[in-house]
Amino acid sequence: MLTPRAFALSVGQIDTFEDGTTQNWVVGLLGAPHANPPINVSSGGPSGVDDNYLRLTAVGGAGPGSRLSTINLNQWAGDYITDGITAISMDLYNQGQTDLYLRLLFADPIPGPATNLAFSANAIYSCLLVVDGRRLSFP
Ligand SMILES: [Ca+2]
Description:
139 residues; mainly beta; globular; binds calcium ion
């Protein structure tokens, strides 16, 4: 069963991953196996050496882990409109061999299945091997 913790959204909140954890970013919520779950990498984030970051990996094909995705039911759960949040930004570094088109998905999966879904209308393109990382914003 999915059980969110009590967190509140706030304007300006950021996940830095400096605590060495994945900061509640997960995959396989309903027990689906994933060959490469999110991991915290201790160096190489946007500020370089000793800047932790979250590494996501997709294995391609079909089935669990085939697509680059992750879920957060904790600090990123809430009512974005009521809380005055109008955009979300993230630093990205595509280390794979495939160009990516990224979207954000918002849903109310608890207790499930989701009855309300919303996703960013326009995918943001992350080209192959952006060397210095890149901050993208989803309006
Ligand atoms: Ca960091």
